[in-house]
């Protein structure tokens, strides 16, 4: 019989944002993020997840000269004048947050980045996206591009887990959620909560994928990642239409059982919340996914040694 594990309840929010057009200023976007931060706080949240690239339109859909992309879409400092109001209000309300943005470093490196900010508005952790989807060439016949491999460098540091106001919190970005390795690296660091933002085009430019499968694979990735690593998981989407280009909705909060406990109903700015009990993961970690007792890394070598699929061994 499992010794009773004392509950550790916590108010978690996901702030899904609707489309951001090319014409939308960062100031107008930050006003929308502030509105959702306040709503989340009003609904008892101590932490809010904002989307990937939350300050601008999903610019990797456009082929542009690098100097223009860097000038228009990348943040040279974080925080900066545009986002300082978000940090100030979060500190005033005592709410932590995850925020995704495009980062340009002083050395000229470009990353698809996310930060964890605690309830005193200190940046606790930074992550630079590892799994960059898409391509770096111009696809002339495509209705839009997906140029993350052109505009971003691959992050040099693996996924980490930070103490975020007493919660062992890991983070990743968008395409990362589709790869089980992402979740396991954080699961092996005893994560309790994994948060991420995403921008997922509804239309697949590579083959006529039925649209409903975009939502299916997003939810499947979230639910399996959470369940197989005994973590609470939260995903904030940038959604709806951006200058006519469609991004899926489906922002969610998923329990360590892999169950969706909250899901966005729209493709607009929408806050979803849940009171999560961090103790829930313990039951799964002590039994079915007691990694120390059950995992057999000596049989997993292929996962690390091989990049692409190869011959049977
Ligand atoms: N977007 C998409 C994502 O992983 C994608 C790209 C969609 C890849 C569907 C494969 C299938 O959700 C980002 N930004 O990674």
UniProtKB/TrEMBL annotation:
This is Putative amidohydrolase. Keywords: Hydrolase. One of its GO terms (molecular function) is hydrolase activity, acting on carbon-nitrogen (but not peptide) bonds, in linear amides. Pfam families: CN_hydrolase. The keyword Protease does not apply. It comes from Castellaniella defragrans (Alcaligenes defragrans). It comes from the Bacteria. The keyword Hydrolase applies. Residues 10-278 form the CN hydrolase domain. PROSITE patterns: CN_HYDROLASE (PS50263).
């Amino acid at each position: 019989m499992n010794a009773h594990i004392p509950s550790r309840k916590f108010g978690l929010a996901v702030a899904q944002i609707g489309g951001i057009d090319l014409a939308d200023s960062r100031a107008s976007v930050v006003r929308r993020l502030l509105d959702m931060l306040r709503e989340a706080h009003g609904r008892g949240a101590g932490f809010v997840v904002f989307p990937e690239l939350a300050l601008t339109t999903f610019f990797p859909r456009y082929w542009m000269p690098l100097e223009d992309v860097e000038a228009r879409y990348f943040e040279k400092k974080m925080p900066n004048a545009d986002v300082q109001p978000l940090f100030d209000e979060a500190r005033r309300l005592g709410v932590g947050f995850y925020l995704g943005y495009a980062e340009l470093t002083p050395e000229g490196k470009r990353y698809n980045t996310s930060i964890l900010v605690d309830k005193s508005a200190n940046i606790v952790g930074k992550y630079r996206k590892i799994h960059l989807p898409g391509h770096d060439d111009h696809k002339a016949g495509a209705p839009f591009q997906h140029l993350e491999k052109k505009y971003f460098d691959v992050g040099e540091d693996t996924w980490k887990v930070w103490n975020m106001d007493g919660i062992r919190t890991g983070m990743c970005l968008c395409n990362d959620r589709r790869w089980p390795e992402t979740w396991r690296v954080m699961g092996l660091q005893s994560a309790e909560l994994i948060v991420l933002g995403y921008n997922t085009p509804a239309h697949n430019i590579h083959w006529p994928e039925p649209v409903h499968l975009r939502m299916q694979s997003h939810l499947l990735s979230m639910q399996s990642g959470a369940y197989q690593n005994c973590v609470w998981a939260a995903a904030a989407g940038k959604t709806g239409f951006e200058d006519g280009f469609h991004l899926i909705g489906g922002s969610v909060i998923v329990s360590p059982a892999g169950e969706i406990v909250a899901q966005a109903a729209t493709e607009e700015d929408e806050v979803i919340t849940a009171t999560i009990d961090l103790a829930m993961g313990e039951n799964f970690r002590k039994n079915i996914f007691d990694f120390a007792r059950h995992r057999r890394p000596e049989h997993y070598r292929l996962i690390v040694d091989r990049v692409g699929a190869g011959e049977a061994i």
